[in-house]
Write a structure and sequence with these properties.
Structural class: mainly alpha
Number of strands: 3
Largest sheet: 3 strands, parallel
Strand order of the largest sheet: 1-2-3
Oligomer: single chain
Radius of gyration: 24 Å
CATH superfamily of the largest domain: Response regulator
Strand content: 5-15%
Length: 196
């Protein structure tokens, strides 16, 4: 987004030529009115915009779509401004004129981050769905395994035979689609970190 029409047109040509779907806006209000947080993408912002500066717009974007990378592209930037932008979560801070390959490389890296974030979200959703498919006893065994308890301890705590715990563990592994206890613990920890 840039308030200079010539800059917007040049950016759109460049970004589109690299295969990105580019949508340009002259001000923050128009951008926010058309912003779809469900659509994966990256925002390129000028620091100096009418009514709302780049930092303020970045905060609004982060509140609506926290996984949307923001790249600042400004003609009047300095080191202090760049540091501040990065501290508040900007993906990158570039100054005009920017070499086209530098900008396209930054956009490719931002796209990779978006893809990674989408993959994590999909994995967390799959984990949650598989977790819901566990029987109550299997869920108890899962929780005990993730806490690091051995079969014997789980059997004692749940009032089961050790052989029964082994059967439940095997079912948990199969239902969760995991091959090892390490994978199970990793998946559980990741879910706790990235989940609600």
């Amino acid at each position: 987004m840039d308030d200079d029409d010539r800059v917007r047109r040049a950016l759109k040509r460049l970004v589109s030529s690299a295969g990105f779907d580019a949508r340009m806006h002259s001000d923050a209000e128009t951008f926010l009115g058309n912003f779809d947080p469900a659509l994966p993408g990256c925002a390129i912002l000028d620091m100096y915009l009418p009514k709302l500066n780049g930092f303020d717009l970045q905060q609004k974007i982060a509140a609506i779509a926290p996984n949307c990378p923001v790249v600042f592209l400004t003609g009047r930037g300095d080191i202090g401004m760049g540091v501040k932008a990065m501290k508040v979560g900007a993906f990158d801070f570039l100054t005009k004129p920017v070499h086209s390959q530098k900008l396209l490389a930054t956009l490719a890296a931002a796209e990779a981050r978006v893809e990674e974030s989408l993959a994590i979200t999909r994995d967390a959703a799959r984990y949650e769905e598989r977790l819901r498919n566990l029987m109550p006893r299997e869920a108890e065994v899962l929780a005990a395994v993730v806490e690091g308890n051995l079969n014997k301890q789980i059997a004692h705590d749940l009032g089961l035979a050790e052989k029964t715990v082994k059967v439940h563990r095997a079912r948990v592994m199969k239902k969760m689609g995991l091959r090892s206890i390490a994978d199970l613990v990793r998946a559980s920890i990741t879910k706790r970190i990235d989940g609600p």
